[in-house]
Amino acid sequence: MGKLAFLFSGQGAQYVGMGKEMAAKYESSDDVFEQATRALEFDIKKMIFEGDDETLKITENTQPAILTTSIACARPLLEGGIKPDVVAGLSLGEYSAHVLSGTIGFMDAVGLVKKRGKYMQEAVPVGKGAMAAILGLDAKDVIECCKEASQEGIVEPANFNCPGQVVIAGELKAVEKAVEIAKLREARRAMLLPVSAPFHCSMLKSAGEKLAEELEKIDFNDMQIPVVANVNAEYILDKTIVKKLLIRQVSNSVLFEASIKNMLKNGVDTFVEIGPGKVLSGFVRKISREVRVLNVEDVDSLNKTLCELKSS
Predict the structure, then answer these.
(1) 129-195, which class in CATH?
(2) Does the active-site annotation cover 98?
(3) How many Å is the Cα radius of gyration of the chain?
(4) pTM
C-alpha cells in the first residue's frame, strides 16, 4: 500500500476569507484562529476573514496568516483519522509541516513566522531586490543564466519548483539581466514577480541571523512524523538539526522538486495539499502524473479528500 504525504502552502497563496468556512464548521479549526490571535496579541482572525488584500500581503502578516489557516485546515483531517507518513511545505509551509510533526508548538510557530516575515522584509530595502520566474528551461540552463548575469550583481536560483519552472532572486539589475538571457535561450516565459523582497538568496543572510536568535528561545520537541527539508530534500527526524536547517532555508534555494522526488522514491503515492490554493498540487502533477493529488482548503475539499482517502 502506498504512503501519504501532506504538503503545506507557502507565501503567495493567501486570500482574504481563507479558512473562514472551516472555522465556522469545525471547532478545532476555529480554536487555531483563536490561539493565533492570543499568541500574536492582535486579531489576526479578523484580518484573515474580513481584512483587505493590501494588509494581508504585508509579509509579516502573510506568514502567520497562512500558517494559521494551514493548521486550521489540517485539524479536521486529522480528526477524521487521516495521518500522513511524511510532511513537507514550500518555504513558509515548512513551518506548518513542523507544527504538524510536533517539532514546534503552534503558539511558538505563529509568533516565529511573524518575526521571520519581518526580518525577511527588512533584510533588503524595497526596490533593491527582485525575483523572477523562468519557465520552459531546465534547471541547469537557469543556473547558467544566473552565472552569466552575476556580473550585474547577486542573482541565484531561489526555488526549484518542478520541471521547467525555476524562480530566481537577487539584486534587481542582475535579475533583469538573467531574465534577458533566459529569453535569448528561448525560455517559454521569463518575468519579474510582484514580491516585496528577494527571498531564498544570499541577500537574506542577515534575516537568517536574526531568525537564529529567535529560534534559540524556542524548545523543539521530538518529531512524530518525518519532515522533508527544503534545503536538502532529505527526510528529517532529528529535532537537533531543525534549527540549522530553518536558518539556512531563509537564504538558500528551496528544493521542492527534489523533495517530491524523494518522497516518490520512498513510496508516497498520494499527496494532500493543505492550506490556501492549489499551487503545490500543480507542481506535483508536473513532477509525476502517476500519483494522486488532493487538497484541503475549505469544507467541500475536506469532504472530498476524506471520502477519497477512506475509500482507498
Answers:
(1) alpha beta
(2) no
(3) 19
(4) 0.96
